[in-house]
Amino acid sequence: MKKYEKIIDDIILKIQSGMFKEGEQLYTEREIKEIYNVSSTTAVRVLNELETTGYIFRVQGKGSFVNKTLVNKKVYVTENNNFHKYFKESVYEHSKVISAEIIQDKELCDKLKIKNQKLLKVVRVKYIGNVVWAHQTNYIPLKYLPDINTDDLDNFKELATMIRKKYRIDIHKEKSKKTMKVTLDAPKKVAKYIAKDNEPCFEFDRFTYFADGKVFEYVKIYINYKYYTLTIKD
To answer: Where is the signal peptide (predicted)?
Structure first.
């Protein structure tokens, strides 16, 4: 077991034992360095892994805090799109690419915890028959997609498949973290597709990570409330 993994296990044990309670501040990067005699790089990786796995949340300028999560509990999660309630079996799902472009956005890069750099931005809407049920925007650092061509929009309809074939990166096999909330105020550019009558929407933020903890992809998804349910069983 690597040094950073031992530190993570030790901190998780302290959380599970109640040494660090829900909402309490965890060790700082400096404290991890001093307590475990490791480098800044290792300390940062420890905090990143704990955040990725849901044990902590971080507040800029204040530190890391213990999260209230189901991390320690075995649960079964089922996501359902409810299509069978609204559409015939013969109606098929497909995507339309609204745009594919190269952007540079410092605020977004800060969110991804990467240096300011160019990103691929792909905006798509997803259909069942002629009904739009979801709006999705993907952001990927351009350094992972050399020679990407944004001229052919159809090439981005099945983005994950294209990346797997062209760059040999299987997004679905990498670690990810997804958060969800309900919104009554979807952006106008989104609402015009999936919430024309101001219906509630589920809003998702999903991050996909490489094994070293670096973010490969950030995805913002909006789904009309009719087409999504989440069931959690313990």
So the answer is: none
